[in-house]
Amino acid sequence: MHVKVRKINSMGKPLFSGDPTRQTVFPGKLKVMENRIHALGRVVVTASIIDTIDANAATLIELYDAVLLWADEKRMRMRGFEDIDGIQYGQTWEIEFA
Fold first, then answer.
1. 2-97 architecture in CATH?
2. Is the Cβ–Cβ distance between 29 and 49 less than 8 Å?
3. pTM value?
């Protein structure tokens, strides 16, 4: 499913709606699935945004232990954590269906 994602947090701290970092949009294809993550030593539910512009489908951003918080006709919100340089930070995505 094609979506546009905005991150709500940066390195575990909330971004405010006027913050330019929060205004960064990650367009792509949303993919949610179970994955075995060897670094974590377990199976986790991951949500990924896959670049749909480039022929070489690259993961733009990824959310581990992804949980759907709510969904309506055109939007949804997911929560989990992101891994930045081996450190796990809480993250929430605001997702809009394209």
1. Roll (2.30)
2. yes
3. 0.88
